[in-house]
Design a protein that fits this description.
single chain, 73% helix, mainly alpha, 166 residues
Length: 166
């Protein structure tokens, strides 16, 4: 009976990890691959994982797997342009084009940041997590999260300004 409860709890946690990955903009196929690999690693190491930190461990393993896959493929699929389809049709085509171009430039600038900075910016601004939630997820102090987010924003602005001469 204990194995059944553990499997149900694992399935529940893996569903949360999957939804989190999708919210980060990771494609369905890549998110499924990351969750599958995460489940496999959990089954290998579950006896050494603290039960209070299972979710953060699963998310960390899934993100690391995804980043490894991206490095192998030399790309990050951020899907920053998905929101463009939700723009009001009444807007001028020029406005839609400019918004899409700005998001494209921002995506290119974001790709030039360290993966850790990318992750922090996406956690804060795309998924809308608070400093405390990010702190718990990454197991880093809140002050360190704030400091690294400040540095990430500053570096992103510098890269964007250099690329677009603003």
């Amino acid at each position: 009976m204990d194995d059944i409860n553990r499997n149900n709890e694992l399935n529940s946690e893996l569903n949360i990890v999957y939804r989190y990955l999708r919210k980060l903009g990771i494609s369905q196929v890549d998110a499924e691959d990351a969750v599958q690999e995460t489940a496999y690693k959990y089954l290998l190491y579950y006896d050494s994982i603290q039960t209070s930190k299972v979710r953060s461990w699963l998310i960390r393993v899934a993100l690391n797997f995804h980043y490894d896959q991206c490095r192998k493929q030399r790309k990050y699929d951020l899907n920053l342009n998905e929101g463009i389809l939700e723009i009001d049709i009444k807007e001028l085509p020029e406005a839609i084009f400019l918004e899409k171009e700005r998001n494209s430039g921002l995506g290119r600038a974001l790709l030039q940041l360290k993966p850790h900075f990318q992750e922090l910016l996406l956690l804060k601004y795309q998924t809308g997590l608070s400093y405390e939630e990010i702190s718990k997820l990454l197991e880093i102090s809140t002050s360190s999260i704030k400091m690294n987010l400040f540095r990430a924003r500053k570096q992103l602005a510098k890269i964007y300004k250099e690329a677009y001469h603003e």
